[in-house]
Amino acid sequence: MSRTKSLWCRYVNDPSAVPLRVGFSVGRSYGRATERNLLRRRLRAIVNDASPACGLTGGMLLIGARPSARELTFDLLREETERLLSLAAGARRPAPAATSEMAGSS
After folding, report:
1. Taking a C-beta distance cutoff of 8 angstroms, is the pair 22, 47 a contact?
2. Which string of DSSP letters, residue by residue, matches the chain?
3. Given 40, 53, 55, 72, which residue has the most CB atoms within 10 angstroms?
């Protein structure tokens, strides 16, 4: 898991998941539904632009926001998201083995 001051993410490097699959987790503590949806739209736009430059072209990515992200302007949100994606790209791990393989090894 990678973290910044206001954001966190989990990344699974799965070669079969191309293009990059991205999900967002923004809890109710962040604000009203319209505020949460606005943040998701902003994050989606930033990730679409920044992920190829960070080397994240495939896999699965979950990005979450803490309530402190409300205070970020779009430019600050972009900087923090790009830093988060760089951290995730640096901490790549292969996808976990399938459960059937794990059950057969016992």
Report:
1. yes
2. -EE-SSEEEEEEB-TTS-S-EEEEEE-GGG--HHHHHHHHHHHHHHHHHHHHHHT--SSEEEEEE-GGGGG--HHHHHHHHHHHHHHHHHT--BPPPPHHHHHHT-
3. 72
Cβ distance 39 to 96 under 8 Å? no
Cα 18 to chain centroid distance, Å, stands at 15
How would you classify residue 59: left for phi > 0, otherwise alpha for psi between -120 and 50, otherwise beta?
left
Running along the chain, 106 residues long, what does each successive block of 10 average in pLDDT?
A: 90 85 94 96 94 86 94 95 90 53 49
pLDDT of 44:
95
Q: Decide: 81 and 73 in contact? Cβ < 8 Å.
A: no
